[in-house]
């Protein structure tokens, strides 16, 4: 999965035009790549511009979208939704269950502190809050992961997949190829051994 961030305040923000070119390149290079459009509380009009241009395989809703809005977005755009949930305490983990019947995937991330970006902050939450939980739907573990800590995180939480941003960057918004390789290697090993 390749994620494209449509959030102007982020150092990773990309315009629809830039994304369209990169997505075409990615799809030329790989038959199996899945494109994820990451949005935060966007209107139908803005989602239409994104979906109409890049036809993402997934919409990652990373804002305060309520379960009803998730249902609406899926219906309107006929695209599977991955709902991001910020986890800071046990209530947040319970709250995630509200989305189990409306989203195809959950993405459990650190809850942003006041003034921080909604995501991509390189912050890890306390994984003991979700260890052993059944969310009723596949979920990705996210928040502060990198090649050095992903094995321990996966062993404790046993997610269906992992997500990373800052942990594979050399500076905010600047992806680093060597770090991406190291992360993917470590994540694959960890997910494979957790599945055995
Ligand atoms: O990455 C961003 O800049 C971003 C901006 C606004 C909303 C969400 C954003 N990222 C969401 C992600 O899925 C990140 O990969 C996730 O939060 C993990 O980030 P990190 O802790 O830096 O690995």
From TrEMBL:
Q: In which pathway does it act?
A: Amino-acid biosynthesis; L-tryptophan biosynthesis; L-tryptophan from chorismate: step 3/5
InterPro entries the record matches: Aldolase_TIM, PRAI_dom, RibuloseP-bd_barrel, TrpF_fam
Taxonomic superkingdom: Bacteria
Catalytic activity, as annotated? N-(5-phospho-beta-D-ribosyl)anthranilate = 1-(2-carboxyphenylamino)-1-deoxy-D-ribulose 5-phosphate
Ranges for the N-(5'phosphoribosyl) anthranilate isomerase (PRAI) domain? 2-185
Record GO biological process: L-tryptophan biosynthetic process
> One Pfam match, by short name?
PRAI
What GO annotations for molecular function exist for this entry? phosphoribosylanthranilate isomerase activity
Which UniProt keywords are present, listed alphabetically? Answer: Amino-acid biosynthesis, Aromatic amino acid biosynthesis, Isomerase, Tryptophan biosynthesis
So what EC number does this one have?
5.3.1.24
NCBIfam families from the entry?
A: PRK01222.1-1
Identify its protein family.
Belongs to the TrpF family.
**The protein's name:** N-(5'-phosphoribosyl)anthranilate isomerase
> Which species?
Pseudochelatococcus contaminans
């Amino acid at each position: 999965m390749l994620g494209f961030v449509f959030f102007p305040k982020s150092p990773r923000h990309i315009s629809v035009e830039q994304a369209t070119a990169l997505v075409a390149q990615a799809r030329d290079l790989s038959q199996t790549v899945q494109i994820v459009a990451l949005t935060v509380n966007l209107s139908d009009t803005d989602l239409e511009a994104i979906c109409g241009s890049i036809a993402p395989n997934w919409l990652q809703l990373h804002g305060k979208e309520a379960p009803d809005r998730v249902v609406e977005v899926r219906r309107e755009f006929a695209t599977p939704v991955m709902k991001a949930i910020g986890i800071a305490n046990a209530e947040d983990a319970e709250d995630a269950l509200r989305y189990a019947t409306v989203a195809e995937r959950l993405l459990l991330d650190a809850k942003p502190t006041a003034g921080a970006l909604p995501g991509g902050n390189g912050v890890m939450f306390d994984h003991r809050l979700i260890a052993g939980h059944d969310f009723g739907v596949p979920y990705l573990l996210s928040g502060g992961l990198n090649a050095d800590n992903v094995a321990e995180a996966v062993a404790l939480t046993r997610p269906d997949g992992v997500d990373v941003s800052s942990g594979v960057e050399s500076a905010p918004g600047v992806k680093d190829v060597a770090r991406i390789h190291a992360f993917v290697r470590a994540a694959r090993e960890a997910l494979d051994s957790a599945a055995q």
